[in-house]
Amino acid sequence: MLEEAILEAISIEVKLDPSPDLSHLGYYSEEYAEGCVDLLKFNEVDSAKHRYFHADGDVEETVRLWKRMDEYEKDKWQMVVVTAVALIEANGRSTIVTSPGVPGIESDSHKDYFYDTGKEEVLELTELIAFFGFHPISIIRHTIKAVEDFRESFEKKESKC
């Protein structure tokens, strides 16, 4: 017999993107093309890299994007995924339900972007878990707590800087 499901918690998580798409930054190549960055001019060519970096835009924009790619490669920032997670208990077992998540977020994006994305993911998650028959007040209470906890986590990070 199925017991009544209990909504234990909702949280927002930020995790490393397991398969980041960096194509919006550009790409390395051995082929010269007009507007590309010649990495020899920056003393940046080694055996692991190609000589040229290509991106959409003028040379100044391509240099900016190459520097951004270089920062990524040096782990100065990462691509992350923001998801909302619900912990549900029924019949003595815990189940985790997650929102689809938003991948491809740059880890040094403005905190407001993270807040907005987290809130959107929580709203999507609440639609998914509504099918479990939870009382709307319970969902709202957990949703508010998740968003407040998420906001606090960013404020703590800022106060440490």
Output the keywords:
single chain; 26% strand; 161 residues; four-stranded antiparallel beta sheet; 3 helices; alpha+beta; elongated; 2 domains
- How much helix is in the residues? 25-40%
Query: Separation of termini?
Result: 52 Å
Query: What is the C-alpha radius of gyration, as a whole number of Å?
Result: 22 Å
Secondary-structure element sequence?
Answer: EEEEHEEEHH
Rounded mean pLDDT is 89
Which shape, going by the Cα principal axes? Answer: elongated
The low-confidence runs, each spanning 5 or more residues with pLDDT under 50, are none
Structurally, how many domains make up the residues?
A: 2
Largest sheet: 4 strands, antiparallel
Strand content: 25-35%
SS element count, helices: 3
User: Pairing-aware structural class of the strands and helices?
Assistant: alpha+beta
Number of strands: 7
